[in-house]
Design goal:
This protein is α/β, with parallel strands linked by helices. The protein is built from 7 helices and 7 strands. The chain folds into 2 domains: 55 residues, RecR Domain 1 (Helicase, Ruva Protein, domain 3, Orthogonal Bundle); 121 residues, Dna Topoisomerase Vi A Subunit, Chain: A, domain 2 (3-Layer(aba) Sandwich). It is 41% helix and 12% strand. The strands form 2 sheets. A 5-stranded mixed beta sheet has the order 4-3-5-6-7. The N and C termini lie far apart (60 Å). The relative contact order is 0.11.
């Protein structure tokens, strides 16, 4: 029995933590790997070890980068806009839709209404610094239309608000409770194209 082997039980437990995977799906994946140890397990283990060793999160923009190498946010290309997203998956879906040309800022999560804006290690201070450093004209807040996403958006608005900066957020096409990475290209395009200025409440 597979479940009698502690190493496999632990592997199933770890895979079950991944988004979209429960114990049954995790078990099927583990069995597939075990039945293809040479072709799948060894390359996967090697790739994971390399990522663990060499890939880090940039403390400036939140993107991934190779250790000791310059992040894309430090390259010479100049933009006057920055798009603020919750996570890498959101950035990837926006990039694939080809609807935005500018800087990205990946927060690394969201605040929730009970956080008192203190608990999460979000890169909001570095966002403020990037806005000043690059003399940006517009900040697009592309957080999800969830309670946590909107709580985070309001906090960011307060942190970066000034008379010279245009702050906008995604508008039409973004359903209430919707997450950015789940949107199709057409819906995302509409939300970007029809983004609206943020006004004080």
């Amino acid at each position: 029995m597979v479940n009698d082997i502690p190493e496999i039980e632990e592997l199933i437990k770890q895979f079950s933590k991944l988004p979209g995977l429960g114990p049954k799906s995790a078990k099927r994946i583990i069995l597939k790997l075990i039945n293809n140890k040479e072709n799948m397990v060894k390359p996967l283990a090697k790739s994971l070890a390399q990522v663990y060793k060499n890939v880090v999160r940039c403390i400036n923009c939140g993107n991934l980068k190779i250790t000791e190498k310059t992040c894309i946010c430090e390259q010479t290309t100049q933009f006057d806009k920055i798009c603020v997203v919750e996570n890498l998956a959101d950035m990837w879906v926006i990039q694939s839709a080809n609807i935005f040309k500018g800087y990205y800022h990946i927060l690394g999560g969201t605040l929730n209404s009970n956080d008192n804006y203190e608990q999460k290690n979000l890169l909001i201070d570095s966002l403020v610094n990037r806005i000043k450093k690059n003399s940006l004209k517009e900040v697009i807040i592309a957080t999800s239309a969830t309670i946590e996403g909107q709580t985070t958006a309001h906090y960011i608005e307060d942190a970066i608000k000034n008379d010279k900066l245009k702050i906008t957020k995604l508008a039409q096409g973004l359903p209430v409770g919707g997450e950015i990475e789940q949107l199709d290209d057409g819906t995302l395009f509409s939300a970007f194209k029809n983004r609206v200025p943020v006004t004080g409440e």
